Amino acid sequence: MTWLRLDELRIGLGCMRLPADEQRALETIAAAVDAGITVFDTARAYEGNEALLARTLRTVSEARVVTKGGMARTDGGWMPDGRARSIRADCEASLAALDGRAIDLYLLHTPDPRVELTTSIRALARLVSGLYRRVSVTGELSAFVSTSNDPLWKYSSVIFPASVAASIATSRISR
User: Fold this and answer.
1) Domain total of the chain
2) What CATH code is carried by the domain that includes residue 31?
3) Is the residue at 28 inside a domain?
4) Fewest beta carbons within 10 Å, which of 48, 76, 93, 165?
């Protein structure tokens, strides 16, 4: 099944703010399924939401799971972590939490200003070789794209948002 079918993308459930009460969270996901929602957006940093999705979506074959890695929760809030080993570790933890359910789209939560964007992109590109169906990047990327020394267009397995794709194309033309 192709990921980007328009009839599947009409509406999704963002799982960042699922109820803290586990039973209510499971009921929320089940209600979304009953309402015809097929896309579920979560992240490794959302502490337990992937496992809740796995339990609720076990028999829902048409459900699509979008999850993110490269972000950690700390005492001070959210901390991007775009290191290749962290992206890989988040990927493996997401797969374990989803209990064998395929991940349709895996996103880098946001670029890490301490890590060269191409390091994170290369890590994402390596994940496509069997762990995820598609990978992409979310967050504010324009500053990272314009300063990258590595031509991002060569990572054809990574889906870039339209504005970033235009920046990549422009930088490719000017090189």
Assistant:
1) 1
2) 3.20.20.100
3) yes
4) 76
Contacts of 43 (CB under 8 A, 6+ apart): 16, 49, 67, 68, 69, 71, 109
169 within domain boundaries: no
Buried b (16+ CB within 10 A) or exposed e, 5-21: eeebeeebbebeebeee
- pLDDT per 10-residue tile (average), the chain, 175 residues: 56 90 96 92 91 94 89 86 94 92 84 89 77 61 52 51 40 39
Q: Which of 67, 74, 13, 77 is nearest to 43 (CA)?
A: 67
* Residue 18 pLDDT: 93
Question: How many angstroms separate the CA atoms of 150 and 79, rounded?
Answer: 24
Helix (H) or strand (E) holding 72, with range, is strand 71-74
Cβ atoms of 106 and 68 within 8 Å: the answer is yes
Per-residue model confidence (pLDDT) at position 97: 95
Contact status, residue 55 vs residue 82, Cβ threshold 8 Å: no
Q: Which domain holds residue 88?
A: 6-140
Tokens coding 64: 């699509």
Q: Are 152 and 160 in contact (CB under 8 A)?
A: yes
Residue among 36, 74, 70, 32 nearest 53 (CA): 32
In this prediction, residue 168 carries a pLDDT of 35
What integer pLDDT is reported at residue 19 of this predicted model?
Answer: 93
